[in-house]
Specification:
The model has no long low-confidence stretch (mean pLDDT about 95). The chain contains 2 helices and 9 strands. Helix content is about 10%, strand content about 40%.
């Protein structure tokens, strides 16, 4: 087995994500993330920064929007009538919703504005348009099993 990150290895990674000098999330208080390298399970900029890292190695990676969640798209806003939603759904600013389009694809949106009759939905990823800074530590590596490769994700 390789002692550096390469495709089809299960990567166990600790990280802290910083946006605009604010910690957005961190594995410090929980479990590291576990994924198969090279199959697009994490954002492209982070995945490419991992190649060649060794277990125990630490680095800081700065990722521009085009290699993360893309630029913010103002055309990804939609106004919807409140009457289109079930009464059980809280239609408050800040609420995240999973909605199905006409083809049955599930899309995530956040309510960013509301008035008496409508809500404004933002279909951009919450981190779209942001430069992301990751402080990463490669905790472990192992070969992915055939079953994991077939399923497209690491098993615990």
């Amino acid at each position: 087995m390789s002692d550096t990150v390469q495709d089809n290895l299960v990567v166990i990674l600790d990280y802290t994500l910083i946006v605009d000098e604010e910690v957005m999330e961190s594995t410090d208080d929980g479990e590291p993330i576990v994924f198969i390298q090279g199959i697009g399970q994490i954002i492209p900029g982070l995945e490419s920064a991992l190649y060649g890292m060794k277990v125990g190695e630490k680095k800081t990676v700065v990722i521009e929007p085009e290699n993360a969640y893309g630029d913010y798209d103002p055309d990804s806003l939609e106004i919807a009538k409140k009457e289109e939603f079930s009464e059980e759904i809280p239609l408050d600013v800040g609420t995240f919703l999973d909605l199905s389009d006409d083809e049955g694809e599930v899309l995530s949106a956040q309510i960013i504005d509301e008035d008496e009759d409508t809500v404004t939905l933002d279909f951009n990823h919450p981190l779209a348009g942001n430069t992301l800074t990751f402080e990463i530590t490669l905790s472990a590596l192992r070969p992915a099993s055939e079953e994991e490769l077939d399923h497209g994700h690491a098993h615990s």
